[in-house]
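User: We ran a pulldown and think these components assemble together. Before we commit to crystallization trials, I'd like a predicted model of the whole complex to look at. Sequences follow.
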Amino acid sequence: MKKSLLLLLAVVVAIGLAACSSKSNNGQGSSSASPSATESASPSDSAAEGEQIELTFWRHDYAPEAEAFKKLIATFEEKHPNIKVNFQMIPNDQYETKIRTALAGGNPPDIMALDAPTLASYANQGAIIPLDDYFAKDGNKDDLLKPVIEGLTFNGKMYAAPNNEGTIVMFYNKKMFEEKGIPLPSKNVDEAWTWDQVLDAAKKLNDPAKGIYGWNPTPWGFAGHEGAPYSEMAFLWQAGAEILSPDGTTAKGYLDSPEAKKAMTFWKSLFNTEKVSPKELPQDAFWNGKVAIHVDGPFAFSYQAQNFPNFKLGVDYDVAPLWKDQKMIGTTGSWGMAITSKSEHPDEAWQFVNWVTGVEGSKVWYEVTKNLPARQSTFDAFAELKEYPMNIYAEQLSKYGHPRPVTPAYPAISEAIRLLFEDVGLGNGDVDEALAKAVKKIDDGIALLKQ
Amino acid sequence: MQRLRFAAYDKQESRAAFLFIIPAFALLAVFIFYPMIQALWISFQNYNLISSHSSFAGMDNYRKLLSDGSFGDSLWHSFYFTLVVLPVQTAISLGLAILVQKKFRGVGFFRTVYFIPVVVSFAIASTIFRLIYNKDYGMLNVILKGIGLPSVDFLSNPDISMLGIIVLCIWRAMGFVMVIFLAGLNNIPESLYEAAHVDGASPIQRFFLITLPLLKRTMAFVVIITTMDALKIFIPIYITTSGGPAGSTSTVVHFIYETAFKQMNMGYAAVAAFLFFFLVLIISIVQLRVFRTDVEY
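Assistant: Here's a predicted model for the assembly, 748 residues in total across the polymer chains.
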């Protein structure tokens, strides 16, 4: 009885294993077949003509950008009737998980959108392909801004084409400033306000009775996504601290430097002793007049136009360069498009990527999204980019832009920085302890890559 | 001869039994046991989620996890959550069940009302509670301010954030547990209460001497299910706080999710999953022993 049960177990398990292993063999078979397929396709683009090709493309959901994509996809499909682009938008906070699960399952889209700092971890694992040959052929790489190229290059190779560049500047409620008689900040990027100047104004603007916060230093508050560390890192760099050693091997001695301690102590005071910054950022707080000094990207203008048309630039609010401390620095880096190594049609995928991010596509992209361009030609094509308010973004970007670290350990860094600022800001935790914890987390992440 | 025939019959019987078991077992093997074995294997490797290569790590992952402060914290958060939810939720549900067991006009209305939260999707409930809890504009704080009480910052105060999650979870689950208790209560013969009443037992005596002992089997089921669900809590945390503020609601499952999908460190996450699996297993076994009854009523 017992024996037969055991036998049965063995048989069933064996069947289960066999079924699964044959499945995984199939998977390997198709993946090993894909390079040869691309080889046969690459000699001539015309070979693919006539047969219908479908490219899948995933991107996180953001309304103005989705509109730009739809426009560009329509013109692309018109020009390439044999290629169909299957465009899928995924909710922002699920995007990274979904794309990673798809990569792990060996079934990713042909083209994936990625945020600049995650590029290295994908490239390091061979999940995406270098685009240098394509860029050399018809990508107009010389036209791209230098910090953009830097942010998308890992181990000397460029792995993604940028949709746009990004940085954040200071927004302030002009009416509130005038009410309190506070002088308005300069619009010259070389004369940015210091932390102390901003804090000083924030203290005067703060009005707990009316639920008004003086200074919101992050666009999305303590969010659980990359948006938080994006703006928080600037504080560290401005104080003169670094996150990693120049060779990228450790955070020890850099993230726990006296400069970093100073930045964190200042951050802690904003939320706990001065109480000028909101621990919970209410929805649309700045646009509703609940935050006096805010920070946001160029996409904020189109958001305001759509949702708060009566809250006007120049009347109700204005923008100024980001604040500074020892140094003036604004975090840069935005989203780009990469081609996955599992794609069976990398050439066609590049055609699409280049259509969207190339010289002409980039102009369409700017017109719809009003986001900071990654190409010089786009800057030259639109006069408004040289005028207020976009000139503040453009000048701050070219003079004081600082990309996030390009390292495969970036997921650990992003998480460590996010928790560091939460521990100190929300938790009112000890600065030294929180920094030590962040250093350990980052160094553990780096050590893992060496194995 | 007779014995042989019995033996042959037995064999035939057991063969038929196996045939009935095979389909279910095959599914379990493919979808549960095989992935588990695979996960065990991964836990001994340096395994990146999106990488095609992995290297053998031996006990490295296990050693590192046992000295990992954030894993320890997440364990404590899970147990703290369970230690509060288990008694409070069970007591509330039992109370509700006793209330709505009485037959009076409109009892169906109350049963429905108490059960409605169960029908609401956990994701939707979490999103709504996030709005309710907002420090400045949330309904909860508007009401508190209206009656002159200080506001409660469930979403940004690390000291009380877990209580916010606990309230949400109890609100959602109590209706379900109430229905289970209701079924248990209805199984207790009315004659026992009548006899006790004749003997002069007070309502409190009747509750402790009749209701509770006769509910033991139901209670066992409720306690074990609640414990397992509470330890594995994830969805409301992912949606309302994503482990924050300052990591104060990061439970074990959230830790595993973060490690596997954000840090892409599958091997390490698999170790955490396995250690946690054994912890839950041990707790369930202990609970089963404790609730084992020798007397069947």
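Chain A is about 50% helix and 10% strand. That may be worth checking against your pulldown data before setting up trials.

User: Thanks, that helps.
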